Amino acid sequence: MAGGAGMSDSSDKSAEVEVIKSRKLEGLTIPLKQDVQARNISTYLEHVMLVHNALPELDIDEVDTSTTFLGHGFSAPIIIDSMTGGTDEATVINERLAQVAEELNLGMGVGSQRAGLLSDSLRESYSIARKSAPNAFLIANIGGVQLRSITLDDVRRIIEMIDADAIAVHLNPLQELIQPEGEPRFKGIYSKIVELVRSVDIPVIVKEVGSGISRDVAVRLELAGVKAINVAGSGGTSWAGVEKLRADNSKAPMKSRLGELLWDWGIPTAMSLLEVRRSVRVSIVASGGLRNGMDVAKCIALGADMCALAWPFLKCAAESKEAVLDYARALIEELRAVMFLVGARDVRALKRARYHLQGPLLEWFRTYGGV
Ligand SMILES: Cc1cc2nc3c(=O)[nH]c(=O)nc-3n(C[C@H](O)[C@H](O)[C@H](O)COP(=O)(O)O)c2cc1C
Known about the structure:
Layout: H1 10-33, E1 48-50, E2 67-69, E3 72-74, E4 78-80, H2 88-104, E5 107-109, H3 114-118, H4 120-132, E6 137-143, H5 152-161, E7 166-170, H6 173-178, H7 189-199, E8 204-207, H8 215-224, E9 228-230, H9 239-249, H10 253-261, H11 269-277, E10 283-287, H12 293-302, E11 306-309, H13 311-319, H14 321-341, H15 347-351, E12 355-357, H16 359-369
Parallel strand pairs: 4-5, 4-11, 5-6, 6-7, 7-8, 8-9, 9-10, 10-11
Antiparallel strand pairs: 1-12, 2-3
Flavin mononucleotide binds near residues 290, 310 and 311.
């Protein structure tokens, strides 16, 4: 982390707070109101076929979806992925998400917390998560790029803000590239991650935001000592898409052009997951375009320890806490149904379930999948 005193004087700070607030609001309203999902790329999970078991030797109510991850027990291998904070609207969203994480014992990440460092009033939009979920596994969040300018003290404040069980560092070079005020400068971030891992006493997770993690990056992250990797591959929410629409609004034609070109850039989630699982031993979270319990089951069979979903939870949270609860319950029931159909009594058995790869995923796997 930076060794310096940290933030600027108060007038600069309040201007910065206003800019961040409006950016965070756009980061919520664009994915909610406009279509920023992948266009011509998918997760490739449709190319994974779990093998049906006609004689599962199980009753459906024996199927146990519970699991452990980073030393914590969960009712199902499901995390509400890192999304929001830093604007008043986010307080309501985080409250609803956290209430459901608590009620169902799922994990939850908050959005990038730099805004919470800048202002007490914005801190509430994150800390509401811990208030609403005293026992749930909560994940703090900061951008890799931000590690260059914040101090270790700031990191501690971020962790304390939600009394976090783990901290996620997001790597988002594509988003930084298209974002009108982005900072596509990643030099030196690896050593900042190494420093972070050595300095905090909770597990560090490194995640993408929708472009996937390759095996080389995974190996370097494992060497850095991170405890888990969230692959967040392509096929779901496109951050090039979100930032392209923001660039249109702020009349930044070159950024908009880049966003259009790179809308579907990235490694499909299933590919990234297979590649990372075969390269490292750290825990893996699958994310990026997962939408139902069958996607979750497939990812666990491919080697994920947990699965995270962002956009579908946001859509529900914008409606009501009940909508989040209904969706999360449906995910768990769908997962249970698929576990029954492959004859997996528990998550450990699901990890060993047989699957076939098909189409482009199989083609890729035959050439590169063995690592
Ligand atoms: C509205 C929204 C805000 C997000 N903000 C963050 C963030 O602050 N930090 C982060 O690590 N990821 C963030 N993400 C990325 C998600 O955690 C996730 O990796 C990505 O959206 C892919 O999952 P999905 O296809 O289920 O949305 C955000 C996603 C959404 C939809």
